[in-house]
Fold this sequence. Notes:
Rossmann fold; transcription regulation; SARP family transcriptional regulator; 42 helices; three-stranded antiparallel β-sheet; Arc Repressor Mutant, subunit A
Amino acid sequence: MRFTVLGPVRAWRGDIDLDLGGRQQRLVLALLLARAGTVVGLDELVDAVWEQDPPTSAVNVVHRYIGTLRRLIEPDLPVRAVGDHLVRHAAGYQLRVGEDMLDLLRFRRLVSRARREPDAVRAVAVWTEALTLWHGPCAAGLERSHPTFVAIDGERSQALRDAADTALRAGQARAVIPALRQGAAWSPLDEPLQARLIAALTADGRQAEAVEAYQQVRRRLADELGIDPGPELAEAYDRLLHQKGAPATAAAPEPEKSFVPAQLPPDQPFFSGRESALSRATRLVGEGHRQGRSAVTLAVDGMPGIGKTTFAVHLGHRLAGSYPDGQLFADLRGFAAQGTVMTPDEALRGFLGSLGVPQGTLPAELHALAGIYRSMLAGRRMLVVLDNARDFEQVRHLLPSAPGSLAIVTSRVRITALVGTGGAHPVPLDLPSPHEVREALVNRLGAKRVEAEPAAVDEIIARTGRLPLAASVVVARAVSLPETPLADIAEELAAAGAGLDGFGADEDADLAAVFSWSYKALSPGAARMFRLLSLHPGPDVSVPAAASLAAVEPRAARLMLGELATHTLTQARSGRHTMHDLLRTYAADLAERHDSPGDRREALGRLFDHYRSGAYEAHELLPRALPPPAPPEPRPGVLVPSFAGPDEAMAWFDAERRVLGAIAAAGAPGVSWHVALTLQTHLQFTGRTPSWVATMRRGLAAAMADGDLVGQAHLHRSLAGALFNSYEGEEAPEHLSRAAALFERLGDRRGVAMVELNWAYVRAEHKEHDEAVRHSERALEMFRSAGDRANEARALRTLAGSRARLGHGQAAQELLRQTIALSWEMGDTLGAGHSWDLLASLYREMGRPEEAMARWEEAAGAYRKAGNPAALAEVQLAMGDACRDAGDTEAARQHWREALSALPEPEGPVARQLRDRLGDS
Length: 921
C-alpha cells in the first residue's frame, strides 16, 4: 500500500489506484494520514466531516467509513478482524503506516536530513528531493481549513523558505526555483515565500521575471488585502533593483574572539507553582526540537502583573543547559512606564555586540543587521528571551531561525502574528490557583508563620485576587515586618477597601501604574469601553452586552473587546471576556474620574435593559405555566438578543446565568425582580433548585421594595414552587396564599387558576388526595373557560395523579392518554413527557414493570427533546429504582449514573438522592 496526502488524497495497492469513495470518506482518510502514527479522536473525525452541525447518526457514519477504508487497505482481512493498519483505540482510530507508505513521512525525513547536512550543495539536493513530493496543497480538493492540514501546509512553506536560503548561500538558486514557483502559486499572499522567489530569480539572472513576480504579488496584496508589501518583500525588491546578492551570501564580520553570552537575569529564588504552564512549555520545546524544522518560539502572554517575566526567566534557567552556545536577553520596553520602546535595530546591535561582533563594523540598515544576526546564530544552539514585546514587527528580526535554538517572547498582548506568521507556540498564563499562592507565601514567609494565621492568609489571597504582582507587594511588606502578625497586614488591605491603595506606591510595584501602561496604549473607544466594563455586575461579558453598555454597534464592540483582549481582558470562551477584580477596581476609578455620573447611570441602565429584555425574550420561548409580565421598552442603543428557538434560549441562560443572578440580587428598581422571574424555568429545568429558591427570594424582596404587586404575586407563586421542588415545603403554603390573594386583588384569573393547580401539588404531596382533586378540578374549569389548553393538560395530569392515588387507576389511565393526545396536538413535547412519566409510575404501582419501563423510555426521550435535564434525571432515577427492586443492580447503577450526568450541576435533592444511591449500592 502507498498513500499520498501532499496534494490530492490517493491510495495504491501495488499499481492499482484505489477508489476512496466520496468526499466525507476521503476526508476521514486524509485526517488519519495527516496524523499518521497518532490516535485521532472520534469527536475530531466527526467535527472534521460535519464541522458545526453533525447529524445524530454521525458516529455511526464514521464507523462505517472506517470499516470501508479498512477493507480497502486490507481486502483479505477476515470479518471482524482488527487488522494491522487501521486500528481502533478507546479514544478513536490510528492509521499505522511506515515511511515507505506515506509521502508525508518521507517528506519529513528528507527535511530533517537536509537540515542536518553540513554541506550546502548536498543539502540543496536533499531539499529538492523533499519538495518534489508535493503535488498540491495538503488534502487538495477536500475541506482544507482543518488545523492539521493548515499546519502541514505550514511545514511546506517553512521547508521552501529554508531550501531557498540554503540554495542562495550555496549559489544553487536555479535548483529550487521550480518548487518556489509552485509554492508561491499555492500561497500567493505568503510574503516571505514570494520574497525568496524574487531573490532566487535575481540570483539566477532572471531580473525581468523577478520584477514581474514582485509586481504580481504587490497588486494582489493591494487588491485582496488593501496593504502594501511588507519589509521582507520590499527588501527583496530593493536588492533586485540594486542587483545585490541575498543577505545570507554576505559574510558576517568576524568577531574579535569566541563569545558565549550569558545574559539571562537571575532566577527568582522563591519561585513556586506554574507547574502546568512549565510542563506545557517544556513539552512544546521538546516536540519542536524533535521535529527539527526550525528554531522553537514560545509566546508567553497574560494580563499585567501576572508574572510573565518571572516565568520566562525561570523557564530559561530550567532549559539553559540545552543551549550551550549561550543566552541572549532583552527588555524590549513594549509597555514601559518610562523610556521609549526598543527598536529592532537597537536590540540587534546589542545582541551582536554580546556575540563579539565589533560595533564599528556593523551596517546601518536593519535588514543587513538581521542578516548578520542570522549568520551568527546559524549552527549554534542559543536561548533568546525577548521580554515585554509590543508587536510582531518588534521581534520578527530577533527570532533565531536555525534548528536547535529557542526563543521565549513575553508580552501583555496576544501577538497573533507571532503565532500565525512566526510559528510560535502560545503559552498563556492564567491566575495561579489559591493553593499555588499559599505555597508561594510559605516559600517566602515560612510554613510556621503562614500556618499560624490561616484566616489572615485566606484574606490576603482574596484581597490580592491571586495576582502575582499584588501578592508580591504584600509578601515584601510581610518580610520587612517579621514581627507584625499577618492579620494586621490583612486588616490594612481590608481597610483600603476595593481600591489599590493597599498595595503601596513603589515605582516598580504600584498596581495602578502598571495597569496604566496598558490603558495608555488603548484607542479612545476601547479606553471608554474598559472604563464602562467596571459597571458590569457579572464575571464575564458578551459582545451584545458590551455593545449595549457603550451604545455602539456590535461590530464596533467586537473590535473594542478584541483590542482589550490583547491588553487587559481575558477571553474566557468564544465571544465572552473576563476582567480581573483588581483591573475592574482600576477601571472603576478611571470611570469616576473621566465619565460623568449621568453617563455612567445611562450606561448601566442600557446594560440592565439588555439583560431584562433578553431574559424575557428567552423565557418566552421556553415552556412555562404562567408567563411573566412584559418589561418596559429598552432605551435607545440597547441591543436586545434574539433566539431561533428554545435551544438557543436555554444556551443563553446557561451563558448568562451568573450575570442574571447578580442583577437579580442587585435590587435594581424595576429590573431585579423582572430578571429573577424570567430565570425560573431555566433554573427549574436544569435542576438548580437551591439557586431557584435563592433567586426567587431576592426577586421577591426587590418587587416588595418597588411596591409592584404584579411582581410580588408571580414571585410568591414561583418561590412556593421552588421550595416545594427542593423538599422545603413548609413555607410553600404561606407563599401560595399570598399569591392567591394578590392575583384575586389584581383580577388575574389565570394566576388564580395556577395557584389552585399548585395547591393540588401541595395537597397531593401531603397525601390529601381528595383536596388535591378538588383543587385540580377548580383549576381545570378555569383553564377551560379561558381556552388555555396547555394548562388544561397540566390540570388533567395533576387530576390523574390524585385519582390514581385514590384507587381510580382506570380513570387515571384514561385521563393521561387524553393529556398525551392533547400535548402532541399542541406540539408540547415536555407535557407529553410528563404524561408518559405519570403513566409509567402508575403501571409500576399496578405491578406491570415492563410497561412502566417502556413509558419511562418515552418520557426520557421527550425530556431530552424538550431540553429538560432535571426531569430527565428524575426519570432515570425512577428507572434505576425499578431495576434495583427487580434485582438488576448493574442496570440500576447505569440509570443512576446517567441521571447524575444529565444534571448540569450536582446540587439539589435529586442529585443528593443519586449520590446516596450510587454510594450505597
